[in-house]
């Protein structure tokens, strides 16, 4: 096949791998195009000058209208959700020193390093059937200064019950624990509306990447009612990266102005794909949760490391090892690709699994 | 004047302050427009997808041709020079823990916080007449793991002698000390060519902001021959911000392709402004260095804090307090604005100083 075989040990291996009849269930990136209306008349010098560290006022005003009771001053526009999370944890470190942060396991693979790079200590609560185990959560939360919630979740595709989120609101508020709520998939929920976690110590993280297919522009934001967190993030960002790229902010603002049907139309497409891949994998005998949000499935499989290597080298199919998300014995498939490709990918997986039925049990 | 008077204590006060007949010698941002050729045909989905964490290969290849012996793999494209410096110091912290970093004083005001946020400890060598005092440097360098050099310098406008830079190369190489060389003004030297500091432990920082008037896009880079530094920066960036905005990278690449005359034409404009402001301030009786690079002057003045406040509130002229750069008893003026505005600004300053001649001595 011309591809040199090296043992694949992290998602980094697949970055930039493309073309040549490869079907990728790897990266969590929408294949859909961004709204057309965002491209007009960008050749104005205004879009190439330094801007406010917090972000463009018009964009923050538009965002504030999406959150009940919010003010433009409660937002910081960042280089994607990644920088938003990084700034929040670094701010917490500046204020409180080396404190503990509760993470749910399995997790998005950037969470533990981002917490550690900020000088904080990650501790874990194991998800039960892909959702927060509130009994374990209530035990662990007493010993931490902050908790990171990600619903809809990457990699599980699960959405937390509103009851669970309300219970988390209550106990964290009582204990004065920061809740960092990474809601980058909030517009990709198939089952119900997103429940926005609220509170004095709640820090909402979001981005324009998934909703508007603007991943490469890197525009995200922090929303917090606690001025200390906003100020802490700005105090860092003024030195560590300055304003978020102005052109990206302008395009994000324009994207927010396109009709709602852009987003709802996309959700319909995601749902169709969700149904297809869930049905296909179930029919093959996989044991998996039906995704309620985001665009990931996390089916069980034995020898997941070998599966990732075999599928890539022998069948040109990219899937991620669950172990990279601390979900051993599973693989993660992103279904952010068009139906015919999903179909072809599943057919190759089916071919590969022929005679390996015991791996799915 | 309608402006509410608050004591001005940092450059943050002036961010976004504009218009209304204000003359700003504040922010270090070119007023010149970016090259026209960078705006064509950007409405392609490719420019909105995730990219390599290191940066687009074509941009890194183009950069590698500017540095003798360099390879595309020696570069990481970042959210401006700020993120480049942040990633380098955080990498050094990951590798070596809480080590010391030597900074030259006066300094660009982000340097001390960026070093401290990364968990490192800044120590200082005082510039002598705006340039590195090699005797003091050689004493201090023995006790640090890294040193940050900025030539041409913000805020002094000085360019270090080639002899000094060669001596720094030699001693740091002998001691195994990292040299972080922030060369964002390297294309804005009026007196001679830039001397590129070289070596195994040298880390060059640069950006497209000043040369191509692309400040708001936030595209900069790290260039290092030490693969540990490159790998360290990428290992952080994959989690803390992911790829630098792709559209900005594409525009930076296009900017690099415009004829050399774009840059040389700009330098001629900067030089004309430099001569004008240097002449004007000298004629008023100010004691200042003639800028050799960048676009700043740092004249002496007593009561610099009061001067900053008075000039803004009474004369609508923005200048920065030297104290913000640890250059007490001076003010910093950026001359990144057109000649008629410089002229008007100087005339207002002259009016303000009437009867205050003793402040300049």
Automatic annotation (TrEMBL), chains A, B:
Catalytic class of the enzyme: transferase
Cited InterPro entries: Aminotransferase_I/II_large, AspAT/PAT-like, NHTrfase_class1_PyrdxlP-BS, PyrdxlP-dep_Trfase, PyrdxlP-dep_Trfase_major
Aminotransferase class I/classII large domain residues: 21-349
GO molecular-function term, one example from the UniProt record: pyridoxal phosphate binding
Keywords: Aminotransferase, Pyridoxal phosphate, Transferase
Cofactor section: pyridoxal 5'-phosphate
Taxonomic superkingdom: Bacteria
Protein name as annotated: Aminotransferase
Annotated organism of origin: Candidatus Liptonbacteria bacterium RIFCSPLOWO2_01_FULL_45_15
Lineage: Bacteria, Candidatus Liptoniibacteriota
């Amino acid at each position: 096949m011309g591809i040199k075989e090296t043992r694949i040990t992290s998602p980094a291996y697949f970055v930039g791998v493309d073309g040549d009849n490869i079907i990728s269930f790897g990266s969590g990136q929408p294949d859909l195009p961004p709204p057309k209306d965002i491209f007009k008349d960008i050749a104005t010098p205004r879009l190439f000058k330094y801007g406010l560290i917090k972000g463009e006022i018009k964009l923050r005003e538009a965002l504030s209208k999406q959150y009940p009771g919010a003010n433009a001053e409660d937002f910081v526009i960042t280089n994607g959700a990644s920088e938003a999370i990084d700034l929040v944890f670094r701010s917490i470190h500046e204020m409180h020193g080396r404190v503990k942060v509760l993470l749910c396991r399995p997790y998005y693979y950037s969470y533990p390093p981002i917490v550690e790079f900020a000088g904080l200590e990650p501790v874990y609560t194991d998800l039960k059937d892909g959702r927060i185990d509130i009994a374990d959560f209530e035990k662990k939360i007493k010993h931490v200064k902050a908790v990171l919630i990600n619903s809809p979740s990457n990699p599980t595709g699960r959405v937390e019950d509103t009851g669970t989120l309300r219970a988390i609101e209550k106990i964290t508020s009582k204990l004065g624990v920061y809740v960092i709520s990474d809601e980058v998939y909030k517009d990709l929920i198939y089952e119900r509306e997103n429940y926005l976690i609220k509170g004095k110590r709640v820090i909402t993280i979001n981005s324009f990447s998934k909703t508007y297919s603007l991943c490469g522009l890197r525009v995200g934001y922090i929303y917090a009612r606690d001025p200390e967190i906003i100020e802490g993030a700005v105090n860092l960002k003024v030195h560590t990266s300055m304003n978020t790229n102005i052109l990206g902010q302008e395009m994000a603002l324009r994207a927010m102005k396109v009709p709602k049907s852009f987003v709802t139309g996309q959700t319909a497409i995601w749902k169709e794909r969700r149904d297809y891949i869930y049905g296909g994998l179930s029919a093959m005998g996989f044991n998996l949760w039906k995704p309620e949000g985001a665009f990931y499935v996390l089916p069980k499989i034995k020898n997941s490391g070998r599966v990732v290597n075999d599928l890539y080298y022998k069948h040109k199919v990219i899937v991620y090892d669950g172990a990279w998300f601390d979900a051993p014995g599973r693989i993660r498939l992103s279904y952010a690709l068009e139906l015919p490709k999903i179909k072809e990918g599943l057919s190759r997986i089916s071919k590969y699994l022929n005679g390996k039925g015991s791996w799915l049990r």
